[in-house]
Amino acid sequence: MSADWQVLDESAKVGEKIKVKLLDSRETEMKIEITVSGYYLEEVMADQTSCFTVDIPGSSVLMQEGYPTVSKLGKLICLPKDCEVSLEVLSIVEIESDLPGLIVPSKGHLTRDINPKDIEFKFASVYEQDAYWPAKQEQFSLGKPFQFRDVRGIRLRVLPARFNHLQKKMKILQKAVLALKFHSKDDSKISYQPISASKTYDKIYDMFLGYPNLRKNSKQDGRKLVVVTPARYKETIQPWIDWKQKAGYEVTIHTTSKRDRSFEIKEHLKDLYDYPSTRFDYVVLIGDASYSGYFENCQPMPTFEGEKEGAAADRVYVRLDGYDNYPEACISRISGESEEEIANQLDKIIQYEQSPLTSNWSQKGICVASDEGHHKDWQRAEWLQNGGSKSQNVSIEKNGLLANGFTSFADVYDPGANPAKITEALNDGSSIICYIGHGTPTSWYTSGFNNDDIHNLTNKGLYPVIWSVACVNGKFVHLKECFAEAWLRKKEGGAVAVEAASTNESWAPPCDKQAATINSIINKSASTFGAQELVGCLKAMEIWGDDDSSEGNKMAEQCNLFGDCTLMTRYGQQAPLEVKVSYEANTAVFHVTSKERALTNAIVTIYSEDFRYRVSQDVELNGKATIALDSHSKDKLFYTVVSPNCIPLVDIPLE
Asked: 383-397: buried (b, 16+ CB within 10 Å) or exposed (e) per residue?
């Protein structure tokens, strides 16, 4: 049945999201206002029992089996360094009204290999108690402080709806003012640490309440890459390393032996991360994890076993600061068992970034989805394309992908999804694939598209980036070639980057993660494959929790990136660069434009042929980069200019 909007604030729009506003921020206290403008009330059936849902836009739901499905809000907040924190409710207004019936109980977090229709509803004893649930003292709570790279933070949880089924009453939060109190043995020393964020992470930090108010030092370049590789692949990866340097990355190579286990590799990464001069932004692992019984020993490139469910979790490598589940860098894997498999993948990456095809393929996409779930998977896929959504916690911004560079999507939805439809759309060219459905280690169960279909693709040069919500598509340990690996290993075809889970994903939470990633593409808050996924990861932890047993941590551990996390993704129409160069003594001045407009996100790198001399710089807001040349360099110099969605200028002699 249709949902009815229940108004709490007459001046607000229908469907307006719950608001979290920073009222005041001081060294020892932060005041926050939370406002609920209204909610949707909808009658639903729980087997043969008529029930209701109360849906507050912008919130997720507390999914505890047998208990009422209640709204839940999570918010990440900046904290001062070296302090303890407590929470105080300064004021609260709740609106009490009649409860029209039972609030539908949750079936808990079910994984996508379980059909929710096969699980019966249960009603816990709370339905028979003369008390509001959740209890008042549980309405506002804080998690544990954590460190996410430059930012110290904490997660606030709010439960804005409470129910008493015996009295048939409900209370909905209209407004509350909270105070976070900061304490230390010496309160005079409590302070927010000045931020020296890299450009990669500065925009990501914006999701933290209070971050815009922090004192900022000069931004770092955000282009330090650590490559972890077995010795036998060093020569194979060199052309890709050279290209990364031309594209502006400072690359450090760490060579492993057959005896190195994952925690020993992590110790080396931590040593690099702990020093500002070697602190990195990205990590790329080279090699597969083979058939050893323990993830930490799998050669040639081991992984970790996650805390939540024992998932193969590369992200644990970059949990480097504090005892928490937040990563300090982006990480991905070039998974191969031979020099040829590694080389094929890196060749595709170089071609994708350096010499893209100039047809309209990057303006086309593919959505593959099942017709199951609530809401149905294909409906969620439509939101990605067209924007919005009433009750998905992360709604798609700015009218979706079709209003932001894309002209068409091939919709391969059940019933009727099949491999032929996907193959045709892929070979015709698509820059992105969003999948929401069922999976196996070697296929998209929704459609039946599998490894054999990937091996037969002919989409040379038309390589998509894939965001997959499915079970075990990325089960790369103890399997010769999983589905995600097949996409990357396919020579002259397949995909250039894939995000996929190593274990069974849940129904709704991964869709929030995927939606946040798509929003980062739409609003251009992240331009690399790794940063786009990191936005989704952090949003998942904000919404669904960040402790070891949470759904948020489950997604952080099970979702692995296959490909190059520094990959500058291509979505929407490509535009050629026009670069003008002028000289003043030992200074080169670059004016970077595209279609007669200054580019503000281009990177200029000048280098000698052997890279002994190399300097890289971002252009300024006027599209200008001024680079002082080393007067001692007598070598022939070249320059390369790269920018998202543009055709780069590569190896141009600096006359």
From this structure: bbbebebebbbbbbb
**Same domain for 580 and 555:** no
| Residue 124: domain span | 4-194
Tell me the residue type at 122: K
Q: How far apart are CA 396 and CA 191, in angstroms?
A: 36
Say yes or no: 391 and 524 in one domain. yes
CA distance 162 to 108: 18
Distance in angstroms (rounded) separating the CA atoms of residues 388 and 367: 16
Backbone φ, ψ for residue 30 (5° rounding): -130, 130
- Residues 372-426 have pLDDT tens digits of 998 899 999 999 999 988 667 899 999 999 999 999 999 999 999 999 999 999 9
pLDDT tens, position by position, 498-518: 999 999 999 999 999 999 999
Helix (H/G/I), strand (E/B), else coil: 5: strand
Residue pair 284/524 in contact by the 8 Å Cβ criterion: no
Q: In this structure, are residues 74 and 542 in contact, taking their beta carbons and an 8 Å threshold?
A: yes
For residues 229, 235, 239 and 245, what is the CA-based torsion angle, rounded to 10 degrees? Answer: 60
CATH of the domain at 77: 2.60.40.3800
Whether 460 and 590 share a structural domain: no
Task: Please tell me the predicted confidence (pLDDT) of residue 631.
Answer: 66
- Is 214 within a domain? no
What local confidence, expressed as pLDDT, does residue 1 receive? Answer: 43
Report d(CA 543, CA 541) in Å as an integer: 5
Residue 207, φ and ψ in degrees, nearest 5: -75, -10
Q: How far apart are CA 586 and CA 325, in angstroms?
A: 47
Q: Name residue 448's amino acid.
A: G
Neighbouring C-beta atoms of residue 639, cutoff 10 Å: 23
- Asked if omega into 375 is within 30° of 0 (cis), the reply is yes
SS (H, E, C) 518-552: HHHHHCCCCCEHHHHHHHHHHHHHHHHCCCCCCHH
Report d(CA 101, CA 16) in Å as an integer. Answer: 25
Q: Which residue has better confidence, 574 or 448?
A: 448
Which of the pair, 390 or 330, is modelled with greater confidence? 330
